[in-house]
Amino acid sequence: MDHNALKKAAAEAALAFIEPGMVIGVGTGSTVNYFIDALASRKDDLRGAVASSEATAARLREHGIPVLDLNNVDELPIYVDGADEVNAHREMIKGGGGALTREKIIAAVARKFICVVDESKKVQRLGGFPLPVEVIPMARSHVARRLAALGGQPKYREGFVTDNGNVILDVHRLDVSRPLKLEEQLNSITGVVTNGLFALRPADLVLIATSQGVERY
Ligand SMILES: O=C[C@H](O)[C@H](O)[C@H](O)COP(=O)(O)O
């Protein structure tokens, strides 16, 4: 099976967690796009969805699924999103598509974070994928110097502006052997809005598609 077929299989497996009347959180990316397309068949079951990006909001609306403001939602039983890397502890690197900040906010509210990935995303140690860090534009050089002092090689994602009007530094070669500590360290750099490590709030369930079927852990 190719990657896209596996992404689709993982995404569709998440439909089983939807119950009538729910408001659900919906992430961003190519895997989640399969989830949104499949969700269209369940749209009458849903009260609505909270989107982690403008792109996701647009796709949900195209399917006639109501998009709700997170501020008007009391509870979010599930949040379905992809990842760029996930380890055995369900800690992740996210933000390859630049949606990390809104993703982290929705993940913080959600009761259950369901991560949907194909098997290529499973890693023993996080950090092969460059870590995205969202930064206030005027702090870009300052934050880049601090990231370099931590041993990383930050690369400015040129021509890309996040949905929040900020920029992204993709940090190569960071030592991510202690994800929790590193997430806190990066959060404490002035000018950083969010970093793409999801260790303080890992996923609760990973649905991982392999050529043998969708496994969960
Ligand atoms: O900002 C983007 C998100 O964190 C995505 O969940 C992540 O990049 C994975 O995307 P994809 O499913 O396209 O590989």
Automatic annotation (TrEMBL):
Residues at the catalytic site: 103 (proton acceptor)
Claim: Coiled coil is one of the keywords in the record: no
Question: Per UniProt, where does substrate bind?
Answer: 28-31, 81-84, 94-97, 121
This protein's record includes keyword Isomerase: yes
Molecular-function GO term, any one: ribose-5-phosphate isomerase activity
Q: Can you state which reaction this protein catalyses?
A: aldehydo-D-ribose 5-phosphate = D-ribulose 5-phosphate
Quaternary arrangement and interactors, per the entry? Homodimer.
Concerning NCBIfam families, the annotation shows: PRK00702.1, rpiA
Protein name per the record: Ribose-5-phosphate isomerase A
